[in-house]
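User: Could you walk me through two proteins back to back? I'd like the raw sequence and the structure tokens for each, with a short line separating them so I can tell where one ends and the next begins.

Assistant: Of course. Protein one, sequence then structure:
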Amino acid sequence: MAGKQKFCECESPSSVYTEVVANDTAHVDYCSDCNLPIEDTFEYFQYGSEDYYG
């Protein structure tokens, strides 16, 4: 049984970075201090939107 996902609990991260995940279909932001994902930043790419540059 998989454990519960851990998220960043840093009060004020010094910086964040974005990783492509889920077989290149989404992205999530990570805290540079603890290297854990930041809760509620997971987002699927919107390939059909006006903002898509691919």
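----
Protein two, same layout:
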Amino acid sequence: MIRNNTQQKFVLNVADEDGRTALLVDAADSEHGYTIPTKQANELRKKIYNG
């Protein structure tokens, strides 16, 4: 993400176990993050772990 010519880095945490939510966290401020609902996390999980 680019704001005012700066970059913002995030960490994506997706476990390999179906039925769980995922988490997207600002790398510079780990107190602020976003929960990714189970349905969308399952889709991400398929892409990450099943290639």
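Helices lie at 38-49.

Let me know if you want the two compared in more detail.
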